[in-house]
Design a protein that fits this description.
- There is one protein chain.
- The protein is α+β, with helices and mostly antiparallel strands.
- It folds into two domains: about 140 residues, no CATH class; about 220 residues, Hypothetical protein af1432.
- The chain is built from 17 helices and five strands.
- A five-stranded antiparallel sheet has the order 3-2-1-4-5.
- A hairpin with a 2-residue loop joins β1 and β2.
- α1 crosses α4, α7 packs across α9 and α14 crosses α15.
- The longest helix has 21 residues.
- The two termini are about 25 Å apart.
- Bound molecules: fe (ii) ion (FE2) (2 copies).
- The site of one fe (ii) ion has 5 residues, from α9.
Length: about 375
């Protein structure tokens, strides 16, 4: 992940510098700091690669062959800015000076002058000739096999979304959640059904964030596999993404406890489906499904689990799918108190629960999906 962090750092600093350049004069401290940081990063990258290529196509930025979707607001703004300026590629060569970088940033940010007035020594920019938008951007810049990181940046967006939903509740917009689900759907289309590959790309120091994104990936794959229409997949994906929102209200020392939970602590955690459902009732999610899935995702097929429900009460299929994905991700993920399990081991443990813990038909579909 370190490499991607470095590269996204270049893109974000470029975006921030350009934003700042349209607000502040060149002498302003904020601009100076951002430009200095960006220059350092570019020096490091060009020192290593000679030339650092950045491409902008559609809703992607590609840097040194790594594609990033504009999920982060700064990155999204950068991509839009470049589109506005008609710039599809930029290359920075080794030896770039702070002065040339500043001129370029002000040229892009200001949008007043044409670049032709400048002599660029170590910067090249322009259009990528003869490339349509549907072509995978990385194939433009390199013939390396694709390394999909379409979800990079999604964890930070999701963390902010969960926090703002838990904090303000009413009035929060879940559009960023929808964007994440759309990116997940796109990622799965591109990567086929390589769920394990896709979910290993996510990591955030907050377990709930990583877990929520992973569960969303698995549930979207299940829903596509089951043949739900696209709009339903979106709804189901959003519900899966938000299934553990109630955990934002559980004290961190209980959530992250390494040892066994005592009864009281377990009861606190077991409240998260109800807390989440109450939270989601106050938020406009476009449907009741997120609320339903939050409430039901720990109820087992035989109606054990929590919260208590009457036997025979119907459980939504999206809740069953989320419950399956939830258990799978929990088993596959490393936790401080337990090692992560191999796919085969996780699956063989889960098979014990077919027809008791898990709805049998959906469970079979899930196994089929894992292949
Ligand atoms: Fe949960
Ligand atoms: Fe969960």
């Amino acid at each position: 992940m370190k490499r991607q962090q470095e590269l996204i750092g270049v893109l974000l600093d470029l975006g921030l510098s350009i934003q700042a350049s349209s607000v502040y004069p060149e002498s302003h401290q904020r601009v100076q700091e951002l430009l200095a940081r960006l220059h350092n990063r570019l020096q490091a990258e060009t020192g290593r690669l000679n030339v650092l290529h950045i491409g902008f196509l559609g809703d992607h930025a590609v840097i040194d062959e790594f594609p990033f979707l504009g999920l982060n607001p700064t990155l999204d703004r950068l991509i839009r800015k470049m589109r506005e300026r008609g710039i599809e590629k930029i290359s920075f060569r080794e030896g770039i000076t702070p002065g040339e970088l500043k001129r370029f940033v002000y040229f892009v940010g200001g949008g007043r002058e044409s670049g032709a007035e400048h002599r660029w020594e170590c910067i090249n920019y322009g259009k990528i000739q003869g490339v349509s938008e549907d072509e995978a951007p990385m194939s433009v810049l390199s013939s390396q096999p694709s390394r999909s990181h379409v979800l990079l940046g999604a964890t930070d967006v999701l963390k902010n979304l969960l926090l703002s939903m838990a904090g303000e509740g009413k009035g929060t917009k879940v559009s960023e959640g929808r964007d994440i689900v759309a990116a997940v759907m796109k990622g799965l289309r591109k990567e086929g059904m390589l769920i394990d590959t896709l979910i290993r790309l996510q990591s955030h120091d907050d377990y709930t964030v990583t877990h929520s994104l992973n569960v969303c990936v698995i549930v979207v794959a299940q829903a596509v596999h089951a043949g739900f229409p696209e709009a339903s997949v979106q709804e189901i994906g959003l519900a899966a993404l938000l299934h553990d929102i109630g955990k934002e209200m559980i004290p961190a020392h209980i959530l992250n406890k390494k040892g066994r939970l005592d009864t009281e602590e377990f009861e606190r955690i077991a409240e998260h489906p109800v807390i989440g459902a109450k939270l989601l009732r106050k938020i406009e999610c476009g449907s009741d499904l997120p609320m339903i899935v939050s409430f039901e995702h720990h109820i087992k097929y035989d109606r054990s689990g929590y919260p208590d429900v009457m036997f025979g009460e119907a459980i939504h299929p999206a809740s069953y799918m989320t419950q399956i994905a939830d258990v799978y991700d929990a088993l596959r993920t490393y936790r401080p108190y337990r090692k992560s399990l191999e796919r085969e081991t996780a699956v063989s443990i889960m098979k014990e629960g077919r027809g008791t813990e898990f709805e049998p038909k959906l469970f079979d579909d899930f196994l089929d999906l894992l292949g």
